[in-house]
Amino acid sequence: MMLGTARRFGVSHALRATAPRSISARLATQLPKWQAPSTLSSLAATRSLHSSFPRLSAATAEATVEETEPSKSAMITEFSDLAAENLIHNKIIKNIIQPDRMNLKTMTEVQSLTLNEIVKGDDILAQAKTGTGKTLAFLVPTLQNILNDPSVDVSKVGRRSARTGPSEIRALIISPTRELAEQIAVEAKKVAFGTGLIVQTAVGGTQKRAGLAKIQQEGCHLLIGTPGRLKDILSDPWTGVSAPKLNTLILDEADRLLDQGFAPDVEEIQSLLPDPTKLDRQTLMFSATVPREVMQMVRQTLKPDFKHVNTVREDEVPTHHRVPQKLVYTRGLENSLPALLELAQNWQARRDNGEDLRPFKAIAYFNSTAETKISADAFNNMARNSQFRQSSMGNMRMLEINSRLTQALRTRSADNFRKAREGILFSSDVTARGMDFPDVTHVVQIGVPRDRETYIHRLGRTARAGKEGEGWLFMHRAEQDVYRKRLGRLPLTLDTALETADADLSQTFSNDTSVGKIVNQVTEGLAQCDGATKVKSYMGQLGTTTGNFDSKREAIQALNQMFTVGYNMQTPPELSPRLMQQLGLNRIDGVSMGDGTRQRRDGGFSRGGSRGGFSRGGDRGDRGGFSRGSDRSGFSRGGERGERSGFSRGGERGERSGFSRGGDRGGFSRGGDRGSFTRGGDRGDRGDRPSRPRRAFDESFGNDSFRF
DNA sequence: AAAAAAT
């Protein structure tokens, strides 16, 4: 059926011959609000329910053609037809469709809708949902265009002295992350296999000299890289790598590359390329999201008559309809990891019960690198436990990835997760965009993400290529306002099934209950993490929580509670007056403020010689790390006042926070024993929590103080 | 102090 349709429409030369008319004119003058007709998206959605990759059907093709191509151009939907029309090189087609190679048959919407335009040489902004083949959409026609260039010599295929050099770059692809650049390159090499086209990468974190040597030796037609390294090698005349013949510039994840952080680099790279008024240059932009704010940048960067190919209706969300998105309120920040473990265990238990579910393979996203680390550490600690190993969780890989790891470790984690059958990847936003890990069943976002686009792209790591997947967002109640503002219109539904999400973790739990088992495992895993990691995690979350929470006061209380109850630490790190001011915390209760005499040392925090580590009260001989009762107001200023209160003076919220001693809930034993704090006094088993090994920070930090 | 990205 599809094939017949494709043939009916598949007239490539007609496509090439027809000039784009009204649509480009329209786009040039007004905000490009062109979009695929409604039938398209609804139909795609329906089809995807049947777990097929949303392809172009006959009906949609027709509708789309009319809408997008007033010139009645045709639409091709089968890769094999591209060969018949002699539009795309036979070798490329073979690489795509052969079962022992990429094994693809039918093109996706973006691929169909952009191919002819790209071959024609038009500038394009293409928007399509995550996991619908955007990479291939720009690779195939771009590689073809290079082959079409008579000045490109690929005649010496397979021989050592191919007549290409480091200045033969015809197309450049910029990616916002190193792993994505590498992934695109892998795909590009598959497509280009046997054509003689040379694909190279240039990303940071790798040996520059080795990379350069490779390009110098083998030459390069298509270069793929990240902004910093591309800038570096293209601006340095000594490298010999240059692009005087460049015809095509591709911005993958274009909205990201055009935003604040990247735009200057991208502009600088453009300035290193041949003057577009002298050598015609095609620019292609691809992304699942293009927020309004960047449209101006898009328009500035593309030619005035660029095409906006949008397969996502403007009133539609660029997520997949088939992906259930669940929202979970957590009682405190410390509940996230137990809830994550519970989610994984529940899933595995259902599998054990014979339900037809794929193995649990999840990405857990955090808003700070330090939090990814402590979470990965904690889960790795748990996974070492024999009870855990023998459970249905036993075969899970626990992996970590973020930009603070060495590139070697990053690459290893990504590779391992790709290969993993089941496991959890604890990730920062390095992997949020474009990464294609096969068979991810769950995306769990912990904390409201920094913006809507981030949410959408993270979610897009699951349910790719027609597969199923679930999205989860764990969020503190006090993030509601920012949630509504950023994600309010997305289709999340409240889920209250995870028991540990709402458990009061200041209690003691018995291993006889399922909740207790989970909580105690996490507690123990965290207890084995070192103190510095905990402090960094606290500090790392300061920025996002104070920004995300309904009030700064709530943010601090939640963080302090996470630190004491979740991490089993005594007193939260002191903050310098300067930092407090920057965070707007000056008049917030519950903050430990240092006296500002810190000396900077590695990583932005300083160790003040004599000041107690984390200013624990006990060893200083004063009243213990916590203020109790409502007598104390204000906060401590380091030690010079001799008092340590730190936080939570009574107050209506006090009792929730796990410290703030009323005595009724157990809370906190201060006193000289520094450390042991016993929660759950009301249950009568104080101090007997199953797993409370001596905290690592006692050893590693001694009496030193950390102020920030 | 909060992703990422050159050394």
Automatic annotation (TrEMBL):
Every Helicase C-terminal domain range: 339-516
Segments of skewed composition (Basic and acidic residues): 617-631, 638-664, 680-698
Keyword S-adenosyl-L-methionine recorded: no
Recorded GO MF terms: ATP binding; hydrolase activity; RNA binding; RNA helicase activity
Keywords from the named record: ATP-binding, Helicase, Hydrolase, Nucleotide-binding, RNA-binding
Reaction(s) this enzyme catalyzes, per UniProt: ATP + H2O = ADP + phosphate + H(+)
Segments of skewed composition (Gly residues): 605-616
Domain Helicase ATP-binding, first and last residues per copy: 115-308
Region (Disordered): 587-708
Domain of life of the source: Eukaryota
Stored PANTHER family: RNA HELICASE
Free-text function comment from the UniProt entry: RNA helicase.
Recorded family membership: Belongs to the DEAD box helicase family.
Domain notes: The Q motif is unique to and characteristic of the DEAD box family of RNA helicases and controls ATP binding and hydrolysis.
The protein, known as: ATP-dependent RNA helicase
Classification lineage: Eukaryota, Fungi, Dikarya, Ascomycota, Pezizomycotina
